[in-house]
Amino acid sequence: MLSPYVVEVLIEVARVGICGSDVNWGYRPDKVISAPMVLGHETSGIVKRLGKKVTSVSVGDRVAIEPGLPCRRCRICLKGRYNLCQKIRFCATPPVNGTLCRYFIWDEDFCHKLPDDMSLDEGALLEPLSVAIHACRRGNVAIGSKVLVLGAGPIGLLCMMTAKSMGATDVVITDIDESRLSMAKGFGASCAINVLRNAEEVPQLIRNSFHGEGPDVTIECSGAQQSVLLGIEVG
Length: 235
Ligand SMILES: [Zn+2]
Ligand SMILES: [Zn+2]
What we know:
This protein is of the alpha/beta class. The protein has two domains: 8-124, Alpha-Beta Complex (Quinone Oxidoreductase, Chain A, domain 1), CATH 3.90.180; 130-234, NAD(P)-binding Rossmann-like Domain (Rossmann fold, 3-Layer(aba) Sandwich), CATH 3.40.50.720. The protein contains eight helices and eleven strands. Helix 4 (126-138) crosses helix 5. The protein is elongated, with a radius of gyration of 20 Å. It binds zinc ion (ZN) (2 copies). Belongs to the zinc-containing alcohol dehydrogenase family.
């Protein structure tokens, strides 16, 4: 079995989410992969072995991994904004392999112990949840906010639910897929709008669903150019 280095942990991988970015590697012409690479970065697992100086987790702990290891030394790391580190080693970003494998070695302080009442499935969702929390914080979502979420994929749904839990009163979500929209309604969206079916009247539909005004905050989660333009138009 693989041996973790001094401050590393060997994890038996349990769950890995498939992110849009994983799927994109196969389709985007601007992302050229020159060598075989393991995908996956939304991950939970069970600690199997510890490096000599590991203290924060124990063998048998269930953990979620934080998939980007920053350099910890540059100015931006020392400012605490380590997600922006230029030397970050991010799972499933060449040349760093991802977590869709049986065993994975990662630094102990980027392995977060799961509470007893959290499942491994939920653990694998913590990384996308952190994206949603970061987005809502950047947008200053607060009590009474009116929030427009463009795109009802996993990130859009998590942004919608996070905005609600931060106190947003109206959270309107858009997508082109009815099943995603009905899921969004089920998870508490105030209004779910199909931007394909109502393409012409979408901007007005959005304003109507915010009682005639634009949203306070717009979070773009689709990656589609038209969606970005729509966000600017109604924002
Ligand atoms: Zn992801
Ligand atoms: Zn750094």
